[in-house]
Amino acid sequence: MRVRVKVCCIASRDEADMAVEAGADALGLVGQMPSGPGVLEDATVAGIAAHIPPPVAGVLLTSRERGRDIADHVRQVGVSVVQVVREIDPAEAEVLARLAPTLRRIQVLHVEDAGVLERMASYAAHVHAFLLDSGRPGLAVAELGGTGRAHDWSISAAFVAKSPRPVFLAGGLNPGNVAQAIRQVRPFGVDVCTGVRCDGELDSVRLGAFLAAVRGALQDGAPPGPSIAE
Omega before 55 cis (within 30°)? Predict the structure, then answer.
């Protein structure tokens, strides 16, 4: 058993190559957002996605809210995995699952309080995985990721223990805290953006240190949560 690593906010083919060489399992490509780092034009997302070698997954982050619009966005950029960063109407998650049954679907839930535990059940039948982040979607300018801010990991741990789907942990992770986060939360995977960047650029030293910390976090043998294929 191992913890998967998704490196988000990939901005170029060079950054994609760096993350793949370091051992990332998935690369996050950020579509249009109301705020946050790493936003790319769809043509740029498509170009990077086509460059990513299998089995590494290119993951589109989309802020669209209707299932049909999300499916169209995915087709435009040519990815096999989508990360829905807004907590969309569960009925729209069902529409997306029906329109794109082979698409791997990750639903972001933002951990502002323990109420996130109650929102899990509405999505579980329509997604392949959850991602817990530290956004504040209710602000006038919504924060939907890339905040560099950690949330309450005790809530995340309770979510992982309850979830029927694999869970990625995001929000304020860096080489100095990711091992502790993994040991406390036991996620299927971790997601990092700002924690491996320097002056906005992906940093090979920080990225290497992050991957090394992830690899060393579960040496006690305790497994993370269920597989995304389950």
Answer: yes
Q: Which residues of the chain have pLDDT under 70?
A: 1, 219-230
What's the pLDDT score for residue 155? 97
How many helices and strands (H and E) does the chain possess?
A: 8, 10
Long-range contacts of 136-139 (CB under 8 A, 24+ apart): 136/110, 136/112, 137/86, 137/87, 137/110
Of 35, 92, 31, the closest CA to residue 63 belongs to 31
* ∠ Cα 142 145 148 (to 5°): 115
Q: What is the pTM of this model?
A: 0.91
- Extract the runs of DSSP E, i.e. beta strands, from 1-52: 4-7, 26-30
147: closest CA among 136, 131, 156, 157?
Answer: 136
Query: In angstroms, how far is CA 200 from the centroid of its own chain?
Result: 19
Q: Is the separation of the CB atoms in 111 and 152 below 8 Å?
A: yes
Q: What is the pLDDT of residue 36?
A: 80
pLDDT score for 136: 85
Q: Strands 197-198, 201-202: parallel, antiparallel or unpaired by DSSP?
A: antiparallel
Domain 4-216, CATH: 3.20.20.70
Neighbours of 173 (CB within 10 A): 26
How far apart, in whole angstroms, are the C-alpha atoms of residue 106 and residue 21? Answer: 24
Which one, of 9, 77, 92, 16, lies nearest residue 44 by Cα?
77
**What gap in Å lies between CA 167 and CA 189, rounded to an integer?**
7
Q: Are 81 and 59 in contact (CB under 8 A)?
A: yes
The CB-side HSE value for 70 (13 A sphere, CA atoms) comes to 34
